[in-house]
Design a protein that fits this description.
α3 crosses α11, α11 crosses α12 and α12 runs antiparallel to α14. By secondary structure, this protein is of the alpha/beta class. The protein folds into 2 domains: 199 residues, Rossmann fold (3-Layer(aba) Sandwich); 101 residues, Helicase, Ruva Protein, domain 3 (Orthogonal Bundle). The strands form 4 sheets. The chain has a 5-stranded parallel sheet. Strands 3-4 form a two-stranded antiparallel ribbon. The protein is 47% helix and 15% strand.
């Protein structure tokens, strides 16, 4: 690809990504000090993926997606997952209509643009699997009818890492459906001071719609045109293959620590997330730093760790760090 093309793409991306600043400003009116989380929400939204958020209660996980949906004027649904939830509570059911003597369909809260699956690990497997079809196939089957989901469609699931009682861990196959798993930390002291003051004074900013759904769907198409060099593709594949065959990259010490590596969905999502990250940074081409920036979020839930790793207190994060330090950067 010659230089002229790259410059052309760069100009186009700069123009098309102008709304990112507007959207971020609007969301940051309400969400203070969670820059990483807001950025990851945008990556999920523009990369047409879903996000699993992990963090202790009270870190504005629910507020963040609600704010984002208001800024885009999307339809927001919140589903609180509990042990007694049924699949029909999520996707909807058929209801008998007596006057008409027929069954009609009552759609569930899954029919929206932004779906918050709050504490997803509190519901049993049958409810989690009901969510799966909507996430993966972008459709829902109720009775014998199938309905396509509205676009954009983003599932943001949260789980609390502290409590283990009364929870149902998500199976690997389901966790793999999430493009990103983002771990949220506490805000910095200054940010928390602002949050505390705003709450005590009752100063709540009103979020206005600043971006349209049409713009988001158009941006998704533009993201696909972000240029990715073959060297970057090879870099992504090296990282993925290092999770499967660490010995090929001089990481023999990782062999007993990894039970399974990232799937091809991992490489697809890593490439997509890197492209979106470049787009958010108003750039028309992907650099190695983009890949490294999103790598932890894309891979932390895709690497299985062994009992030996748990015994040695080695997490998937540590494994990713070792891989990134070892794999050659183009």
């Amino acid at each position: 690809m010659d230089r002229v093309d790259i410059e052309e793409i760069n100009e186009k991306i700069k123009e098309e990504s102008a709304f990112i600043d507007l959207l971020t400003l609007e969301v940051n009116k309400v969400i203070i000090g969670q820059k990483h989380m807001v950025e990851r929400l945008l990556i999920g939204l523009l990369g047409n993926g879903h996000i699993l958020l992990e963090g202790v209660p009270g870190l504005a996980k629910t507020l963040a997606i609600n704010t984002l949906s208001k800024a885009i004027n999307g339809k927001f649904s919140r589903i609180q997952f509990t042990p007694d939830l049924l699949p029909s509570d999520v996707i909807g059911t058929t209801v008998y209509n007596m006057p008409k003597n027929e069954f009609s369909i009552k759609k569930g809260p899954i029919f929206g643009n932004f779906i918050l699956a709050d504490e997803i690990n509190r519901a049993p497997a049958k409810v989690q699997s009901a969510l799966l079809e909507a996430m993966q196939e972008r459709q829902v089957t109720i009775g014998d009818e199938t309905f396509a989901m509205e676009q954009p469609f983003l599932v943001l699931a949260t789980q609390n890492p502290v409590e283990q009682e009364g929870t149902y861990p998500l199976p690997e196959a389901q966790v793999d459906r999430f493009m990103l798993k983002t771990v949220i930390d506490y805000p910095k002291q200054e940010d928390e001071r602002t949050i505390m003051r705003n709450n005590l004074n009752g100063q709540y900013e009103i979020v206005k719609p600043v971006v349209t759904m049409k713009q988001i769907l158009k941006a998704r198409e533009v993201v696909k045109t972000v240029y990715m060099d073959e060297k970057i593709e090879n870099y992504i594949l090296d990282i993925i293959f290092a999770t499967r065959f660490p010995e090929r990259f001089g990481l023999e010490n990782l062999n007993p620590l990894i039970s399974f590596g990232a799937s091809p969905r991992g490489s697809i999502n890593l490439a997509t997330a890197a492209k979106v990250y470049a787009f958010i940074k108003r750039r028309g081409y992907v650099i190695p730093e983009d890949v490294r920036a999103v790598c932890h979020d894309v891979l932390r839930h895709r690497i299985g760790i062994t009992y030996e790793a748990e015994a040695e207190d080695v997490s998937s994060e540590d494994i990713i760090n070792q891989i990134l330090n070892k794999v050659e950067v183009p």
